[in-house]
Write a structure and sequence with these properties.
It contains two helices and two strands, in the order ααββ. The chain is mainly alpha-helical and 128 residues long. The chain has a domain of 34 residues. Strands 1-2 form a two-stranded antiparallel sheet. β1 and β2 form a beta hairpin. The longest helix is centred in the first third of the chain and has 26 residues. It is flat and about 110 Å long.
Length: 128
C-alpha cells in the first residue's frame, strides 16, 4: 500500500497500513452496541419494558364523565357554601375594643457591695 502523504488529511506520524474507513466502521459498530447496552440497562433498572413492548392503545383528549363529575361536585359545594353564608346570622355589631397596652410599672432596684451591705441611692425621677 502506498504511504499516505501529510497533505491527504492525516498526521505525519499516523500508521500508513491502516485504512481509516475500516476503523470508523468498527468504532461505529461498537458505539451502537454500547448505546444499545446502556439503553437496555436503563430500561431494566427503571423497570420499563424494552422497545416495542409498550402498548399504547389510544390517546385520550378532553374531559370524560369523571372529570365532569368532579367539576360538578366542586360547583355544587361552592354553591352550598355561599347559600349557607348568606343564610347565616351575621351580626353588625362592632368588634370589641382592642385591649390597651399595660400601664408602666415601677420597679425597685437595689445594689449591694462585696460584703452584702445595701448601697443607698437617690431615687431617679424619670427624664431629668
Amino acid at each position: 500500500m502506498p504511504s499516505k502523504s501529510p497533505d491527504a488529511g492525516y498526521s505525519s506520524d499516523a500508521p500508513t497500513d491502516i485504512d481509516p474507513a475500516v476503523i470508523y466502521r468498527e468504532w461505529t459498530r461498537n458505539s451502537r452496541w454500547r448505546d444499545k447496552l446502556h439503553e437496555r440497562a436503563a430500561h431494566k433498572a427503571l423497570d420499563i419494558p424494552e422497545d416495542g413492548e409498550m402498548n399504547n392503545v389510544g390517546n385520550r383528549s378532553g374531559m370524560g364523565w369523571k372529570e365532569l363529575a368532579v367539576i360538578g361536585a366542586m360547583v355544587a359545594g361552592t354553591g352550598y357554601g355561599v347559600a349557607q353564608f348568606n343564610n347565616s346570622n351575621v351580626t353588625t355589631e362592632p368588634a370589641p375594643p382592642v385591649a390597651s397596652a399595660p400601664p408602666d410599672a415601677e420597679y425597685e432596684i437595689r445594689f449591694f457591695d462585696a460584703d452584702g451591705n445595701q448601697i443607698q441611692l437617690d431615687r431617679w425621677q424619670g427624664n431629668e
